[in-house]
Design brief:
Layout lengths: L13 E3 L39 E3 L8 E2 L17 E13 L2 E8 L7 E5 L3 E8 L8 E3 L20 E7 L5 E6 L6 H6 L4 E6 L1 H5 L10 E9 L9 H4 L9 E4 L2 E2 L1 E7 L1 E8 L6 E5 L5 E6 L2 E9 L1 E4 L4 E7 L9 E4 L5 E11 L16 H5 L2 E8 L6 E2 L11 E3 L5 E7 L9 E5 L4 E6 L14 E4 L4 E6 L5 E7 L2 H5 L3 E6 L1
Parallel strand pairs: 3-15, 4-7, 6-11, 12-16, 15-23, 24-27, 26-33
Antiparallel strand pairs: 1-2, 4-5, 7-9, 8-10, 10-11, 12-13, 13-14, 16-21, 17-20, 17-22, 18-19, 18-21, 22-23, 24-25, 27-31, 28-30, 28-32, 29-31, 32-33
Pfam families: Cu-oxidase (PF00394), Cu-oxidase_2 (PF07731), Cu-oxidase_3 (PF07732)
Keywords: Capsid protein, Cell cycle, Cell division, Metal-binding, Oxidoreductase, Virion
GO biological process, one term: cell division
Length: 498
């Protein structure tokens, strides 16, 4: 596959990507790419100022496949004398992302990213969270249905050296969730520096389905994050930061630079997480082969949906299955994006492994007539760009409750993405503490692969989306755009569940 030169040492080459969030990074220098006729260190000042376009973002460099994909470790559960099952620490560290070069990073229970936590439906989980950073942070359990005082929003900040014990019962179906920080005005930088980890929930149904479930073998977590490194090959958020969403030219998958994934000739389950600050990812195979999606953010679809590509905005997840025993190609096999940038090359061994079948029926998710007939009770208008983003014309105020809702009562929210003078951009919209159902997109049924539980949803400019939403627990919860710089800039509100 042709490998494109995408980023100069200082001047940024911009490529149009349809359907992706807007951005222009600052001209932070990349060590590995130099435009002909330009020396490293020279700056194209015409590209420094201003916002280029809602549809233009920096292209990703191809993965060379040099490094085998790192698999997050599984954090073992061990009860101590206090009944604590897990301890999760936010830490500073140094990580060798480029060979021989250490960069300052953040991580959970390590220097970069975090371990995977596995929960069983019905179990009670007790976690000690510890802040070992030099700044405030929180521990937000993205997608978990928990009480407001456990959720880890900006009200729950831990100061440096502080710790907090939280406890909750897992009362939702099998799914792939994640955890990350959510401090006031600092979420984007802390996630960028490496604070993110995965949560797997399993239940009787997931075990019955006999899907690929050998962690790290045929059940693979994939955290996709784009970053920009300076000329010293360091993560430098302040240099890369863009108020409209920070986007980089270098892809890390599970924190691995230039990754590849070695698989057997079998069905392999990929759990995709868009963990980026702002970039949207469209995933497809370079051979044009199809795959099947089996799960959304919060659980299994009723039946597998065959796709040739899938787009995830920041914080969205999807589980897909690729049957590597049926892909015949003489070319290199890889997961690519809509620009055909190589995201993750695959090396298929000659070894044949399991011959499992993808189940025809996986779940009993449904929209009831009652839910479909409910009137809209809450309307949300997303608007703006850069640091002028708002929800319903307002910026976030931690002392203001925007909505109230009764515990256990289903309501219909309508979310509208109001275009701006440049046409607008996609906003990924996330609601804390619950999973919701998509009723409609501009009055039409959602596509088949969105007919499942969701906690984040992509909303295009001038699009209206209706969702049916119920909260199982009481408390105050955030709702916000998951472009992290937009969140930090106040594109966030609060709902109180009574």
């Amino acid at each position: 596959m042709e490998i494109k030169m995408k980023l100069a040492a200082a001047a940024i080459s911009i490529f149009i990507i349809s359907g992706c969030s807007n951005n222009k990074t600052e001209p932070v220098q990349s060590m590995d790419h130099t435009t002909e006729g330009q020396n490293k260190g020279e700056t194209d000042h015409s590209m420094i100022e201003g916002h280029m376009s809602h549809d233009q973002v920096v292209s990703l460099n191809d993965s060379t496949g040099k490094n085998e994909l790192k698999i997050p470790s599984l954090l073992k559960s061990e009860k101590d004398e206090e009944g604590i099952v897990y301890t999760v620490r936010a830490e500073k560290g140094k990580t060798e992302i480029f060979d021989g070069v250490e960069s300052d990073t953040y991580g959970y229970n390590g220097s970069f990213l975090g371990p995977m936590l596995r929960f069983e439906k019905g179990e009670t989980v007790k976690i000690k969270t510890v802040n070992e950073l030099d700044e405030e942070t929180t521990f937000h359990w993205h997608g978990l249905e928990v009480a407001g005082d456990v959720d880890g929003g900006p009200h729950d900040a831990l100061k440096p050296g502080e710790e907090k014990i939280i406890e909750f019962k897992v009362d939702q179906e099998a799914s792939t969730l994640w955890f990350h920080p959510h401090p006031m005005g600092k979420t984007a930088e802390q996630v960028y520096n490496g604070l993110a980890g995965l949560i797997y929930i399993s239940d009787n149904n997931s075990e019955r389905l006999e899907l690929p479930d050998e962690y790290g073998e045929n059940d693979i977590p994939l955290i996709f994050q784009d970053r920009t490194f300076d000329e010293q090959k360091q993560l430098n958020y302040n240099a890369a930061k863009n108020e409209d969403g920070t986007i980089g030219d270098t892809l890390l998958v599970n924190g691995t630079l230039n990754p590849k994934l070695t698989v057997n000739k079998e069905k392999v389950r990929l759990r995709l997480l868009n963990g980026s600050n702002a970039r949207n990812f469209t995933f497809k195979l370079n051979t044009g082969n199809s795959f099947v999606q089996i799960a959304t953010d919060g659980g299994f679809l009723n039946e597998p949906v065959t796709l040739n590509e899938i787009t995830l905005t920041p914080s969205e997840r999807a589980e897909i299955i690729i049957d590597f025993s049926k892909i015949q190609t003489d070319d290199d096999l890889a997961l690519i994006n809509e620009e055909e940038s190589v995201l993750l090359p695959f090396e298929v061994s000659n070894k044949s492994a399991s011959t499992s079948k993808t189940p025809v029926e996986m779940n009993d998710f449904s929209l009831t007539e009652e839910e479909q007939d409910l009137p809209v009770t809450k309307t949300i208008e997303l608007f703006g760009m850069m640091d002028m983003v708002t929800i319903n014309g307002k910026k976030f105020d931690p002392k203001r409750i925007d909505f109230t809702q009764q515990q256990g009562v289903t309501e219909v929210w309508e979310i509208y993405n109001k275009p701006d003078m440049m046409g607008g951009m996609i906003h990924p919209f996330h609601i804390h503490g619950t999973q919701f159902k998509i009723l409609s997109r501009d009055g039409a049924e959602p596509p088949e692969n969105e007919r499942g539980w969701k906690d984040s949803i992509s909303i295009k400019p001038d699009e209206r989306v209706k969702i049916a939403i119920q909260f199982k627990h009481k408390g105050v919860y955030m709702f916000h755009c998951h472009i992290l710089e937009h969140e930090d800039n106040g594109m966030m509100g609060q709902v109180k569940i009574e």
